[in-house]
Input
Amino acid sequence: MNSHRLGSKANKIKMFANINFLHPWFFLLLLLIPLVAYLRYMQRGQHYASLKMPTLQAVKDIGTWKIVLQKWLPLLRALAFVALVFALARPQLTLKEETVTADGIDIFLVIDLSSSMLAQDFKPDRLEVSKRVASDFVDKRPYDRIGLAVFAGEAFTQCPLTTDHNVLKDFISDLRCGLLEDGTAIGMGLATAVNRIKDSDAESKVVILLTDGVNNAGYVKPLTAAEISKEFEVKVYTIGVGSEGEALAPTSRRSDGRYQFSRTRVEIDEDLLTQIAEMTGGKYFRAINEKRLELIYTEIDRLEKTEIEVTTIKRYSEEYYRFVWIAVVLLLLELLLRFTVLRSVT
Output
């Protein structure tokens, strides 16, 4: 209910933001309203004959609702004048049509789901921070097709290339460790993404691979996957996630599925990740904290800019007639009341 009201309010605000006035100088006529009101106030004693009475006891009940309403009749005429001024200013509603031609980039996100991604050197942990920053990156690429692959001891495609970024962000938010057999199969994760993106017709094909460990699983070697990426002209950006030194990370898993944590050394195969990136024309980044990870995605966004051509066609809808009708209705209402129910005898 509340979201519906907020949406309706936002639409109204957007509509008013699209209204332009072709002759705004007519609004200067509105200055006549306070001037006329002041003159009427100064001349109020000249319009009515005065009658001196020793007491007001005889007319104490004359102040009926009709007399009260008579005093407000000029307000209807003033509002009609305001409506006519708005009509003279000639309001126009701007209607826009946009044709977007994008020389798009296909991007595959590859995210490590090994248990070490629960390490708490990032708050609350590496995985949650990586998910949030990846979602922010998706928001910055409205015209690109983006997919998602995940890996631990094995790998699979979580979401194929899509322009439905809301669905993609839902998949990202649902990621959690324990979905796959534990381990770090970097080669499998990269090969899965390349297999999905290799047949794309996009001008540029990019894989962003994020991991926090050393390859220790999978039947596809990371450098073999890099060679396949190079063959299909897929550029790979690699990101090593983890602070320097030691971090509180999972070391074992209990029978109830919960992880036990202890301080362990942060190990990232930076040489391997650098080699993969250089082989494919990409770049390796190291994220030692959340801020650095945000800057890395910003840098990748800058390096892989999408060429967008937007053609905007503007159409205008004349809205002055609405204010003319309002003025006519107000004037008719004022005349109707003045000469019927609020008629005074002079």
Observations:
- The two ends are 55 Å apart (CA to CA).
- The CA atoms of residues 76 and 333 lie 8 Å apart.
- The mean pLDDT is 85.
- The first helix runs from residue 2 to 17.
